[in-house]
Amino acid sequence: MPDQTHAPIPGELGSTIKAVRFHGRGDLRLDELAVPDPQPGEVRLRPLAAGICGTDAHILQGEFPATCPVVLGHEVAGVVDAVGSGVKDLAEGDLVTVQPNTCCGVCRHCRMGREHLCTELRAYGVHLNGGFSEAMVVSARAVYRLTSGIDPRLGCLAEPVACCVHGMDRLAARSGSTVLVIGAGLIGVILTRLARLAGAGEIVVSEPQPSRRASALDFGADSVIDPRQGDVRELAVTHSQGFEFVVDAVGSTSTFEQAIGAAARGGTILVFGVAAVSATANVRPFDIYARELTIVGSFINPYTHDRAVDLLPQMGLDKLHIEAFPLREFQQAFDAQASGVAAKVELLPQR
Length: 351
Hints:
Elements: E1 16-24, E2 27-34, E3 42-51, H1 54-60, E4 70-71, E5 75-83, E6 95-98, E7 101-102, H2 108-111, E8 122-123, E9 136-139, E10 143-145, H3 152-155, H4 158-171, E11 178-182, H5 186-197, E12 202-206, H6 210-218, E13 223-225, E14 243-248, H7 253-262, E15 263-271, H8 285-290, E16 294-297, H9 305-311, E17 322-326, H10 330-339, E18 344-348
Parallel strand pairs: 11-12, 11-14, 12-13, 14-15, 15-16, 17-18
Antiparallel strand pairs: 1-2, 1-4, 3-5, 3-9, 3-18, 5-6, 6-10, 7-8
Helix pairs in contact: 4-5, 4-9
């Protein structure tokens, strides 16, 4: 974890700001934009930290749909800089995080309380300008106060934690059950920690990188395994029967197939990692039928951001290796994210 202090916010905004914008596959630029003004019901933030997510990398590679051009960055912590008319309970100087997803409010899914499945879903940093910027404007209903004094580099992780909370809700693992987490990147260790907090009996993490296996143990795994060195189904903890609950925290054809194979009869598999849109897997429908497997997906963070903010102090995320870069070094930051050396890479727009 880098130094916990952060630079003070510079003085008043000028007439323009700098922002990292996506212009098409492989085309990311540091642009100069007009300062956005909050409209009624909106607030303007000065982002202090914005995480580079796997989704950002997929967008840049043309593997995830996004508006073009758009300022990327949907994992954001910052300070309220200005408030539009009608905004209550938020004031200039508040340290906040952003729940980035917006919905239409009128489609069938929205009216059934499933806003994350909205047919007109839009997200800051994907379809609307996000946090890789010296300033951004968001709906006030998307803003959540952070605990006073929390480092923004941890505060911006409320968004991935919120997504993981929803994933754990979908998995519905029972206390004392056996859990396998495939992958020990940021998402894998967050899910491991949440499984431990939820009372899982035995948690095993499968991860090829030694440093990530060590991190998984720090976050609550009982044991770790290198998938290249053995079959997880043969572990003593499963009695060669497989795991009751399996999480694919990677998002690839091979890890999805591994998850199916590692599940016990009657087991539940959570598909959490984001695979490429075109990816397909070799799965036997008969296997799902005969073993009575349950496969659930988990998409974004409906109604879980508030819980994530409350959970942040218990997550131990300060133990992570986080690399942070100023906005002008966005290319180096994306290279660092692609290398996988750090658990998390972030941009610091005010540096």
